[in-house]
Amino acid sequence: MESERAVEGRWHAPPVMEVAALTALILSYIWGWQRAFPGNAQLVVFLYFGIGIASHLRRGETAAQLGIRLDNWRASLRNVLPVVAVASFVPLALGAALDTWHFPSWQIAVAKLPWTIAWGTAQQYGLVCVLYRRLLEIVQGPWAATLCAAALFAIFHTPNLLLMAVTSVAGVASCTLYRREPNLFVLGCAHAAVSYFVSGALPLSVTYGMHVGPAYYWFS
Fold first, then answer.
1. What whole-number distance in Å separates Cα of residue 86 and Cα of residue 177?
2. DSSP class per residue in 128-181
3. Share of the chain above pLDDT 70, in %
4. 101 burial via Cβ count (<10 Å: 0-12, 13-18, 19+)
5. Whole-model pTM?
6. How many CB atoms lie within 10 A of CB 107?
7. SS3 letters for 170-201?
């Protein structure tokens, strides 16, 4: 990963605009135009990755610097596994105590696995490759960037209080692990695993089906 000292704390327009653009896109989609017209999902995906790619081109970032790589997956996995173990054990233990486990059959889980991993990887891309890296240019120090990125990640999950709490902690963990050993694919798989255990172990009255935005109220 490129030296953080080279990118920290330079307050100027491009990174601010990129963070603002991604934030506005996500929030407007969740709260406004999601399902509003045919092709809305394809459009938000195009804009989401378009903002990210434009940002990387501006900075001259390579795929390896972004963590889109396979050469360090073992080192990244060693960093991530203890965190995933704890993050999975907590909801599993709570769900067992409450007798609320409701996991899908293994056939359904396997069928959904590619989408679950892709969705988790896409979320991690926005969090660590775009928000965290651009915030390093805006605020002083990696911890400030980490906290700001985690806060935005949590805001995207309003008004689901459980997900806001989980994603604020997960956001800090993801940025920290990414800083140590950047590998987007490992983080995406970790995201998918933790989401699976949280959604399947805890009661729907707490998770609200993992919905955010207006869908949270429809579910309730």
1. 15
2. IIIIIHHHHHHSSSHHHHHHHHHHHHHHTTTT-HHHHHHHHHHHHHHHHHHHHS
3. 95
4. middle
5. 0.92
6. 8
7. HHHHHHHHHHHCCCHHHHHHHHHHHHHHHHHH
Residues 6+ apart with CB under 8 A from 171: 127, 146, 149, 150, 151, 152, 153, 154
DSSP state of 159: T
- The b-or-e profile of 46-66 (16+ CB within 10 A means b, else e) is eebeebbeebbeebebeeebb
Write out pLDDT tens, residues 14-59: 999 999 999 999 999 999 999 999 999 999 999 999 999 999 999 9
Cβ neighbours for 59, distance < 8 A, ≥ 6 positions apart: 7, 133
pLDDT (mean) for 211-216: 96
3 state DSSP class of 127: helix
Q: How do residues 63-96 score in pLDDT, each as one tens digit? A: 999 999 999 999 999 999 999 999 999 999 999 9
Q: Is the bond preceding residue 159 a cis peptide, omega within 30 degrees? A: yes
What is the Cα–Cα distance from 200 to 12, expressed in whole angstroms? 43
How large is the C-alpha radius of gyration of the chain? 17
Q: From CA 44, how far away is CA 50, in angstroms rounded?
A: 9
- Structure tokens that stand for 150 in this block: 């985690």
Least confident of 46-55, 186-195, 211-220: 211-220
